[in-house]
Design a protein that fits this description.
elongated, seven-stranded mixed sheet, 38% helix, alpha/beta, homodimer, five-stranded mixed sheet
């Protein structure tokens, strides 16, 4: 059982837009255990579309198509599907009514050309689109004797004139497989499902109508559940070294490791018949990973360092303030991204200029003269001054050199310090980051957030 | 002349990673006037790879392949290219020496399996990769009498035993076309070029070696030059209304309009024989757009609002400070992204908590009581207090409600104010943004930067 995903549109082949639909559909198919063998993107050219659909039907059991269902002359998916199977486009009254209603609801006149969106390859089935004017198309094909493709019409399609169709012709999640005798799907048949290219419309159509029906038809090879464990404070290889037995290929569940902007994530992927079984497989692996990595782990799935920091502070009813030089507000901005951050984030000082460090954060000028701005004593003084000035339980601070210019052999571009002051102490940490200006700033901000997080874990 | 781009890798078909190489290559090919008809992504499966390469060679004149050139068992591009053309893989000594040197330079032992990266389909040509261990492959094929594909070996390949090859066999930008008699490329022949999947290595190989050679071989169908004009302060439809005659379909140069996070961009795209001709087409259109849109335009191509602000401040040798509530540091962070920002950005205060607005920015508590924090008087008082405390020429400030919770009919989620204080005055502006917490924060930060930009343009 293999699937192919086809994206239609010259805006994609030209590089103007990035195709993200194919990745999204691959992820959703993986969740129901269907492996994707191919992604194809094809320009708005009728002949090329017909050829691409034929190639896909030959090699794949399931073909998901996105795009080309709009009302303009560039929208060729309907016609290409009809040509592929040698059938005409026929009018479907309920789809037309729906399109008219959408325009009426918006108090706009329906342009004539939108009528084409109610035309479907004879023998195919419309998939209603509550969110837009482009219905989808569900079409089963099988090879004919001379290598051509033939539409397999289900009993619903055969029961009447489609132009007089009623809502019973519409796809519902519980409608039965289209093979006339109800037998299980024969693998050299191919099911083509065309959906709109607009991501929000496609997402809704896939989730509510296509996925349930695929599962009901027995396409699903089980479920796939994924869990992401996020770490900070060690490199990718150092993390992997502790998990060699888990990340080896061919393990079940699979454990993969990826690095993004100095955050290291472990992805646990389990396949099973039910979500419960998959989760039961993941649980002991997650436990092992958390035990071995200890406080390197700051969160799961989409959690970021600031989410972890705010969650702990909220639970302890404590507050934080920031004193930023090299990160220029990014630490506060990240904390401010968390909904409800106002319960813990008092505010901060962006002390980009040295004078501001002295005037607003009470850093002694002599300290700057002696050690330079980019130093442990200055970053610690900034944290202490900030905590006292803003009256916070904790203050975190940053200094560093983000470049691109201004480095020296003594203090190279990428050298950064993070400081932390609390009731009774102050400490700092440094790192020499490699990367662009933006990467150095981002990673230094993470280092500061992590410094506070680790302190909160132990104290 | 049509091209196809093939990405190889199960991490792409599974949806784990997003393919961005294909878009990048489409954009680069568009720049040299080569239209892309297809993107294909294929899983790590030898048979599927061979089939995909054959389909591509049949329908496209140029096939760019990325991925599958690594040293592991999953890396099948070399073998698939050889199978497609019915040839063996042969050893290429210079490539092997280069791989060995890369490991030696990193003081690491070369694993045996890396030897496979020095194997090439007989008759193909290696493309050196200075940035990694995976050389590329340049392979011209033509159809044989029974529909099979045959490698067309150029004179370089025929001159000697490839296993004893020297650097003269390596691809250089000025090496001549591979057709033996130097005649122009015959269109039913197909040129396959395999490059590494690692984006940075692929980018360098394409730019330095593949593109120049494609142009020299006459693949280029002219040049395409693009110019982006960036605007802020009006909606997409309001901008488009002023440019209806330019954005109509079928115009030359083409003008497209896109909105991203409240920034509206006009893309001017011109096709011509030379870059100079294309630029000459763009120039009057850009002039018209700038005249009609006036101060809505803040920059071109990749310029952001903060780049415009820093550039003007630098030229005037003036300074800015920030006083942020709802944006929590994002205004300062954006200014801090600009290289050399330290010449103008003194720093700022993140006054998230109301108390900080009073204590660090001298906002009168009575003002907050009377108008509430999210009000014009408070955002203006913050800017005035910030400018005076930090000793800057200008101060910009923000307040607002980013949500998701906390809105009222009086002050809904999305309501935001930006303030500006200068030598002799203060003003503010408000907007009711729709969007997520992150979008509301981002757009409010842009509104503050734009307030200062517009002031700098007129004063």
């Amino acid at each position: 059982m293999k699937a192919e995903i086809i994206s239609v549109g010259s805006e994609l082949t030209s590089g103007q837009n990035l195709d993200t639909n194919s990745q999204w559909l691959s992820q959703r198919l993986a969740e129901i255990g269907i492996a994707v063998g191919w992604h194809t993107t094809v320009a708005d050219d009728l002949e090329d579309n017909v050829a691409a659909f034929r190639i896909a039907a030959e090699r794949a059991d399931l073909v998901l198509i996105t795009g080309g269902l709009g009302p303009t002359q560039d929208d060729l998916t309907r016609e290409a599907l009809a040509q592929m199977a040698g059938v005409e486009l026929v009018f479907h009254a309920p789809s037309f009514e729906h399109i008219q209603q959408l325009f009426a609801r918006r108090h706009r006149a329906m342009p004539d050309r939108n009528r084409v969106q109610a035309m479907f390859p004879a023998g195919s089935e419309p998939i209603p689109n509550p969110h837009g004017t482009a219905p989808g198309i569900w079409m089963n094909v099988r090879p004919g004797v001379s290598g051509e493709w033939l539409v397999m019409s289900g009993p619903e399609q055969e029961s009447g004139d489609r132009s007089q169709g009623s809502m019973k012709n519409w796809l519902t999640p519980d409608s039965r497989p289209l093979t006339p005798d109800g037998s299980p799907l024969i693998t050299h048949h191919s099911l083509l499902v065309a959906m709109p290219g607009v991501p929000s419309e496609m997402f809704a159509m896939f989730e509510k109508q296509v996925r349930p029906r695929l599962v009901a038809m027995g396409f699903s090879g089980g479920v796939v559940v994924q869990r992401k464990i996020n770490c900070f404070g060690a490199g990718e290889s150092a993390i992997e070294e502790k998990l060699m037995d888990l990340t080896r290929r061919g393990q079940s569940p699979e454990v993969g490791i990826t690095a993004s902007d100095a955050t290291i994530s472990l992805r646990i992927l389990a396949r099973a018949n039910t979500a419960e079984e998959a989760k039961a497989q993941i649980e002991p692996v997650e436990k092992t990973i958390r035990e071995r990595l200890g406080s390197f782990v700051f969160g799961a799935d989409e959690e970021e360092l600031q989410d972890a920091v705010i969650a702990i502070l909220k639970a302890r009813r404590q507050t934080v303030a920031t004193a930023e030089s090299v990160t220029a507000g990014l630490v506060a901005r990240r904390l401010g991204l968390v909904p409800g951050a106002s319960a813990c984030l008092l505010g901060g000082v962006v002390a980009y200029d040295a004078r501001i460090k002295v005037e607003l954060l009470d850093v002694p000028p002599s300290l700057i003269e002696e050690h330079g701005v980019i130093s442990a004593p200055v970053v610690e003084a900034m944290a202490v001054g900030c905590r006292s000035r803003l009256g916070a339980d904790f203050a975190i601070s940053t200094v560093g050199l983000a470049g691109p210019g201004g480095g020296s052999s003594d203090k190279p571009v990428g050298l950064a310090f993070a400081g932390l002051a609390w009731d009774g102490g102050v400490r700092s940490q440094s790192f020499n980051w490699l990367g662009t200006r933006e990467e150095i700033q981002s990673r230094t901000a993470k280092m500061a957030l992590n410094l506070l997080r680790l302190h909160l874990l132990t104290k």
